Amino acid sequence: MSIPFKLILASSIVGLFATSAMAADGTINFTGEVTAASCGISAGAGTGVTGTTQKVIDVKMGKVSIDSLKNSQTGIVAGSAININLDCGNTAAGLTTVKVKFDPNSGSGVDLKNNNLLKTTGTATGVGIGLYDASNNLINLAGNGSFDSPLIKAGTDPDIKYSANLNLRASYVANGDVVVPGTANGNLPFTLTYE
Fold first, then answer.
1. Which of 18, 52, 89, 153 is the most exposed place for a label (fewest CB within 10 A)?
2. Mean of the pLDDT values across residues 114-133?
3. CB 108 within 8 A of CB 141
């Protein structure tokens, strides 16, 4: 190859990369704020909290029969209460709401047959775990499901304290596959944000 041809070829290749690197089809703007809110987590009935930095909430789902899942009109059986109590001390000044955001993909995942449900791990099949808010609405885990709870302000200046009660229910839900008995566990990371 002659030197001028190599220069032309190299210039063309560099020009292609420069053009594609500069093309933009859109923009994503991120907005947010870092707050001083820092809430301690404790559990109510039916749950237990362990861990010092990242809290682990243990929920006992119990033993549910295949017949109960099949014979239920909704495919939903019983449920375990999840009561999470937040004590924010005086760190939530100016805030009114705590939002719980779930991240199933960092946990056991989303059920492949019904993406509203948490995928179970273990030997059972045909069942997922549904999370319900205090109004008994199924939280859509695949759609960045979350729920809000008000921050409750108590006391008078300078001794104002903030708290919140997060009430959920978890149930086994038939996902449409053949239900096979076995262990049906799961884990679901969550993050608290404040508004």
1. 52
2. 91
3. no
Of 145, 183, 152, nearest to 166 by C-alpha is 152
For residues 66 and 51, the model is more confident at 66
Q: Evaluate whether 126 touches 175 at the Cβ level (below 8 Å).
A: yes
User: Could you tell me which residue, 24 or 51, shows the higher pLDDT?
Assistant: 24
Q: Which two tokens stand for residue 116?
A: 């509203």
Residue 179 per-residue DSSP state:
P
Mean pLDDT for 3-25 is 53
Residue-level length of the chain: 195
Q: By three-state DSSP, how is residue 12 classified?
A: helix
Res 23: pLDDT = 61
CA distance 155 to 161: 6
